[in-house]
Amino acid sequence: MRVRAGLLRRERPAMTGPLWLNLALVAFTAAAFASAPALARPTLPFGVRVPTRRTGEAVILLARRRYNRGIAAGAVVACAVVLIDGLAPEVVLVGLVVAYSLLGGLASRSIVAAKREEGWYAGTRQAVTADTSLRSDPVRPQWILLAPALLLLVVTAVIGLFEGATNFSTVLTQILVVVLIPPLTIAISRARPEIDAVQPSASASRYREYLHGVLSLLLLSAGCVNATMLVVSLQLWEIVETTVPTTIVGYLPLAAAFIAWVVFSVRAGDAGHRLSPTGDDPETRYEQRDDDRYWHAAGMVYLNRNDPALLVHRRVGTYWTLNLGHPIAWIVLAAVAVLGVLAGLGIVTLPEKGA
After folding, report:
1. What is the distance in angstroms between the CA of the first residue and the CA of the last residue of the chain?
2. Residue 230: how many CB atoms within 10 A of its CB?
């Protein structure tokens, strides 16, 4: 019996990383999932389209309470497992994400069932609204905000060449950031805008302000990433000593970018619905068209072959997703999958100076 106990003790997974970090990751995961429904548009609870007059239905309020209780219970269980070192922290986090995703799916299904049984859209006049001003006078990215990222890239590369460094993986990361951020910015600026048929003018002004903030933050975040890569490069090339204070300073730009995104998301809400509109826009007699049939996985996946838009704003979160009904979307996903497989097999390697 003692031998078995000893074997069991040796077989227990060793905790990776400090305890406080693992607990912080659990708390962050719980906070991220809890904030998603709170920041969503009132007419899109858990990714389900509902009429404006139905946003206060009892089934929606009950789904939110159950979801929040599940989030809290999952966080408590996950913290307990981490504290007793019963499972690897990575396994705990993956299990927590899966459990929270299932909770969101159950909440979404309960609202969909009530919506169908009670006929929430019966007798409503549905419409889709477009704002041509966003095409004739689009929100233009402030490209000057990308200048810090470019400058930091040049500074890092010059230091590496001057010091005779051989590992330029961090510089490659900076190059990828500078190369990929502009097309992503352009794609988001040209994505289909989120205009509500209930208040078309107000929602258009909100979305314009929201889009301006997203594009600006995206360009500034590129500079934050490259600033962190500069400090990591100095550590990698042993120009500065790798200490805790240096590491903290190096990741401060990323922390600042993260905090800026969080503050903006809380202030603006999903697609900017929390922002104050310009002018007074009375409500119309229409409701936004019920397009749930094109959205799957609780509003996370969009598939509409008749929609020419490649990028659409997700129903949950401050970001966009591909329209899987668009052929180009599958080309993009296939390219990403091929690169991932090649990198995993070691076929695609990071370049080194002189290689």
Report:
1. 57
2. 20
